[in-house]
Structures
1.
Amino acid sequence: MGILGSWNYNAPSSAFTTEQALAKAGGTAAVTNINTSLASNYSSIGINRSNTSFSFLAGNKFSAKVNGIPFSGTYTYNPQNGEISLKTSTETIKGNVTKTQKGMGLMFDSTQMVNILQKEGKVSNTAAVQAVSKLAKSADGARIGFELTK
């Protein structure tokens, strides 16, 4: 999947790392439940289409806003397996890219997602961030993040 270009937040996104993990969690109903819970938590954090976006540029550079707070750096992306690594001035955040019906899912494990929300997005609503983290940890093999559209 090609990721170059500007992508805006559309909705929460979640996926499981394996079919076995998905089946263990309860199948597609589990994904729907996670996304519904994420939508509520993202809303209380303040994440919306106008303040959360990612732009992937030629030369492996990226810029992003989460909750209106900008950050940038370089990225590596492997289209064969969907693995992506975002390197900022303070950390490296590893995640996965998947194709969705409306665009792409950019998802991370719970620790990486908390880093994006707190370190990069400067989210101060600790209760909502912890709820997002707990949600991802409660479903073994789950990755959570953003569905992005162009």
2.
Amino acid sequence: MDFLRKSYHTARYTFALLSTALLSTALMPLVAGAAIPTYDFKVVRSYPHDPQAFTEGLLYRDGFLYESTGLNGKSSIRKVNLDTGAILQSKDIPPQYFGEGLTVWGDTLVGLTWQTQTGFVFDLATFELRSQFVYPGEGWGLTQNGKQLIMSDGTATLRFLDPKTFLEVRRIKVTADGIPVDQLNELEVVGDEIFANIWHTSTIARIDPASGKITGWIDMAKLYPAAGKGLNGENVMNGIAYDAEKKRLFVTGKLWPKLYEVKIVPRK
């Protein structure tokens, strides 16, 4: 397991270092207070979260959380009781796959894998595998807008996929004041926006799905100060779920012991 973790950290963190300068430039509005507004948050409530869950995908559906976890040999999909954090149902992903983003489509769960270019379609009720599909490049985050699946791959590009064929329909480049922003990780459609965790940061980007322009930054740095101090700094913020009916927003991170309901507020 140590080897798997080191391999993950070396490959993915090296990639992150290559784009640090670009990402830092793109996030300058967060510090400089430029045209793109910055938002803060208030914690509404905290819930237990499995501290062994290397969270890659998170969603809310019919009163329950559904979560996908990563790392080779540790990847799974699971149904979770929101109030208690109890795992009600789970299915391991074969050990050759590193689980990534997860979303719901109809009566199925659709999941990605990191570098194996393989996606899975599971039955929502039973978690039985229905089918597999392939895609080029890496798989990171996954969400849907009611018409298409929306996928991130670690770059500044978001791909929109046909949910029946899994073929790409269109793509957008995510930018902040014209500068591409990569490392887009877990995704969630919130209202008419896409929220995206930016890997190895405590920032959530608010993205216009039509243009790809970032319309706001959400600074979550004060949420869990202990994050980033374990597993070679990989227990970073990752995981956004939205309860559209009650307009509740949930966030967590990899190996975090808590999941939080938060309210986004303008920075004063």
3.
Amino acid sequence: MLAAPLLGVLPGPGGIFVFAGGLVLALRNSPWARKRFARLCKRYPKLGHYSDMALRRPSSRRRRARAQEAAVAASGNADRMR
């Protein structure tokens, strides 16, 4: 993550990939960074969704499956009420 500003000066998108790689390493190895990131994801859920997909976290798949089950259950309840 520290090298990203240096690569950002060069033409091309290199700094973005270096920053993303550094962020992944920090989130995997630092409990402090994980807590801060979890707080950020609670505040901005859309950011959490994209980061979970990018990090290929199992929690992302669980949340998506839970949301689909809830949507199916809600549509089933709506049909019964008609």
